[in-house]
Amino acid sequence: MSVELFSSKEVGEYTAKIYSGMKSAIENFSDEKIMNCDLEEWADYYSEAYRIQPIILYKDNITKSLDEQKVQVYNHWSRMDPYESEYFMVDGYHIDFMIPFDGDSMLWRLRPSTFIMQRFEVETIEEPTKDNPGILTLRLIYTASDLKNKGDNVSSFIESQFNRSFSNYEQMISNVNSAIESFNASIRKNAMELLMARKNKASDFSVISKALQIPMKLSKEAPNVRPIELKRVERKTINKPKDRLREPEYFISDADYENIQNIIHSQCSVMETAPEGFSQLEEEKLRDVLVSTLETHYENSVTGETFRKNGKTDIQVRFENKAAFIAECKIWHGIKKFEDAIRQLFGYTTWKDTKVALIVFNKGNRNFNSILNCVDEWAKTNCKSNTRKNANMWNCVVYRDDTQTDIKLTIAVYDLSL
């Protein structure tokens, strides 16, 4: 019995079901799992696990078989004589074309949004296996006299008949594949959106990043670049197993992180406009200028050269002996020293520090653009993601293998050369 192709559900209905399965799997993540997993790795996993394999045809490997059979022929006289049979059987042949293919065989049954109005029938569909491709068997039927009349041209006649017939099958599966490839191209993005949505719903008890944020107190007199109303985050009651109770940690909010960046950027931009007063200063003195500026904006303890994990960091905003923000000031001495500064900055941080900054001053290189190009290339090569906020500032995400956490790193470069 023949199988009709492209007559089952719509392609969109099939892909929607696949997406629904992925969504359900992600929504079943526990709070603890979603908050402690690497979202990028899971997005990669789902982009493969839920990828639909398009159909690949191996037309160069088509084989044929010939079978002598009685074939049914329409009796034209039956329209004029009711006693005549509508069909009669004559000698003939079944010629089967076995077309190897790979991919999700379900796609043969899906109806694309753009389709050809005809019936598409095959004798059988054999599913692909690990060791062998699938086989689509398309049958052509001829009477013995039909082929006998073709003489020596019988082979080319059959080939042309097959090619003409199968071309519509190819067009239909191409339309299905096009929709599937569009779905595949969006899986990773959709998976990441679902993972982020699930993460945003996660309960506080499972997460560092959901722990209480540090309430940075703005000075009332401070002329902030971007005023932000900051409120003390309440400590929430968290139900945890008794053997896993832990004190909530404090973290700087994204709003404060951006505000501190803006304050530093504003001060450094002033330095650039009047480099004569700053170009002779060493790293420590430049650091002191920025610390003084931050102290006029925030009531929290802003310190310079505060001892940290593996050394002393240049700038640190603290709250209740917890680090809220740490930054390092450096003079540009080439890309190697720049990379050393990044490592030095990460060396100061603990597993709790997830937002840091590196401020770089150029004093001796007259080709400032070459420095910007070096930093831009480093960001593209070494960061999970990076956004060039303006010509001389990058917002980066860097993965730390030692703490298995993502670090938000701001890099800002300023020109104090005369």
Structural class: alpha+beta
Q: Can you list the strand order of the major beta sheet?
A: 8-9-10-11-14-13-12
CATH topology of the largest domain: Restriction Endonuclease
Number of domains: 2
Radius of gyration: 35 Å
What is the level-2 CATH architecture name of the largest domain?
3-Layer(aba) Sandwich
Global morphology? elongated
Number of strands: 14
Q: Please tally the helical runs, counting DSSP H or I stretches of 4 or more residues.
A: 9
Q: Return the average pLDDT rounded to an integer.
A: 82
Describe the sheet with the most strands. 7 strands, mixed
Low-confidence stretches: 204-212, 225-248, 307-311
The percentage helix is 25-40%
CATH class of the largest domain: Alpha Beta
The sequence of SSEs as H and E is EHHHEEEEEEHHHHEEEHEHEEE
Approximately what portion of the residues adopt beta-strand conformation?
A: 25-35%
The separation of the N and C termini measures: 87 Å
Characterise this structure:
This protein has two domains: 3-200, no CATH class; 206-415, Restriction Endonuclease, CATH 3.40.91. It is built from nine helices and 14 strands. The protein has helices spanning 11-27, 31-36, 39-49, 144-148, 154-200, 254-273, 283-295, 335-348, 368-382, and strands at residues 3-4, 56-57, 63-74, 87-102, 121-122, 124-126, 134-143, 301-307, 312-319, 322-331, 355-362, 385-390, 393-400, 405-415. β10 (322-331), α8 (335-348) and β11 (355-362) form a beta-alpha-beta unit. α1 runs parallel beside α5 and α3 packs antiparallel against α5 (154-200). The chain is elongated, with a radius of gyration of 35 Å.
